[in-house]
Structures are given as C-alpha cells and as structure tokens.
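Notebook p. 47: complex prediction with zinc ion.
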Amino acid sequence: MDGEISEQVDQIIMAALTLGASDLHLDPFAEGLGIRLRIHGRLLPLDQVTAFPFFAEQSALARLKVLAKLSLAERRRPQDGQFHFLYGSAECDLRMATMPTIRGERAVVRILPKENPWQSIASLGLSKVMEEEVKQFFAGAGGMLITAGKVGSGKSTTLYALMRERNLLGESVLTIEDPVERKLDTFSQVEVDEKIGLTFAEGLRSALRQDPDLLMVGEIRDELTAQIAVRAGLTGHHLLSTVHADTPFQVITRLLEFGVERSYLAESLKLIIWQRLVPLVCVDCHGKGCTTCHHVGIIGRQAEFRMLGASEIQQFLHIKTPVSEYGVKGLNMFVAEKDEITSEAT
Ligand SMILES: [Zn+2]
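Predicted complex, structure tokens below:
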C-alpha cells in the first residue's frame, strides 16, 4: 500500500512537471480533500488534466509531508519544508507549506523545475532596445535595477537570468533571499532568518562588506532595506531587487513611500523592468480545451515587458507636484494608454 502511494505521488509530480504546473494544491473541501494543479495560472482539478484512476488523497498528503520532512502528527500548526525530486531525467525542487483550516489540513507544494526554460537574457523575450538598456546598466558605475510585477509575473525568473549571465562572465554574485528559491552552484546565497535577526536589511548591510560584483536582495518591502539598497546603488554597487507593483511607475512611488530621499532615488535607481504574463490561447481549440492543450485551453504564457530607464525615472521624480497630488488615477490612465498601444501593435 505504502509503495503504491509513493508511486502515485511520483506520478502526480511527474504529471505536474509535464504539464508545466507551478503549484500543487491539496484542499480540504466539504466532500473531501481535493487535489488541483496550477497550470499557466489556472487552478485545475487533477482528474481534469490527467487520466489517473482512484486516488487516496489523504495518503498522498501524508506522503508529501514525509518527503518534505514535516511532522505527520502536527496538523494544528502551519509547517513548511522542501525536498528534491528525481525520477529518470525529471528533476525539480519542491517547497511545501501546510496550514490548518476548519475542515482539516491544506497544503500547497511549489514546483521549481531544475531546467528553467528562461536561463539566458536572450530567451526572456526582451526587445533589442531593452536588452541594450540592460547591457548599459551593467556597464555603468553602479545603481539599482528593479524587476517588478504582480505575484507570479515571473519577475524573479528575470532576475535570475540577469544574475546568471553576469555570473557566467566571472562576476561574484551574492544574494539575500527569503527563502532561496533556486540554488546555483556558483552563487553565494544567503537565506533570511528573522528569528536570529538576519533580515533583508541586516543581510544586505553585511553583504556590502563582501566585495560582490553583483548584489541581489529578494525583495524590498521595508524602509530599512530600501534605504540601504538605495545607498548601495549610490556607492558604486550593482544592486538587483524586486518590488511588488501593479505598474512600472508604482515601483518609484513605493520606494518613496519607504521614506527614500527623492534625489538619492533619482541618482541610484537606473532601471525598472516591469512585467506580466499573458496567456497564449491554444490555436487548436481557441481556449475551449482539447487534447493538444491537455484540456487547459492555453498552451503557455508569455512575458510582456515595460521598461523605465534612468531618464524616465528622473523625469518622473523631478515632477514639481508631489507624487501624492499627481494622483494615482492619472498614473493608471497613462499606463492604460500605453497598454492599448501595445496590444494594437501586436
Ligand atoms: Zn486546445
């Protein structure tokens, strides 16, 4: 029985990898535990996308908890863990997080494939002009490059591609992450540990003394980290990070909200790469679902980029009217206009 469950869990992970799923969800619904896969952003029941026979869902949850080295007996507190999966030529890292709900334990398993399809800057899908902007940033004397977008927009994939390329050129790359998502053999990666005071800000402060060519902070989400990051950019370091933002300009307003001095920011922030993922509808069924697309309706997602260079950032920051008075509405309209132009052009 145990062997059978292990086999079935292996099959689920294999199917998730084949289908390009990013997450595996185990949800305690009223009628029992449901297993779903997030494929190209959509959450789909396992039996809709695979041809699996009967499945012992609770045993699958238990098996996954064992793999992630979580306590089986603990069902009342959230737990998180990770494990590595290797089956034939398929390989991936998985991160599991459980949470107690009123109907029982739920879990989400994040799937991080070993073979990332976007490994080089060239394969990201940036235009030639954008690639040139990126090149100029790295050729420059230092500063900040921020990738931005909503959760799951692929902004860290872009960041990893940039870092990997610089690393291949022989540069020393030091990252501070929460948690480390992808391990790279030739990176120095530090994991945030709030319990011992190793925060993004603290990690970044120490990292500056390690003489890296390239510094990466997983996310700027507090005042102190923002201040240190801006200062690092001003003192000749190339600093990469992400900011959660709905529009490219919101990156600037968010950094100002963290209390960063406007003139320092104008000096330090050199490039914003904002992105979102646009679904590619299956041509065979026009999104209705067929065998070609495994009944998902879409065959993948494509990144769409907006970039703000140093001059645009400075222009925005030097507007005499303070940003709060400039009005969020006006900003969104401007971006929406740009959206329309892009969609018409493509
Ligand atoms: Zn189709």
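Notes: Residues 2-113 form a domain with the Beta-Lactamase fold (CATH 3.30.450.90). The chain has two domains: 2-113, 121-345.
Next step: compare against the earlier run before touching the bench.
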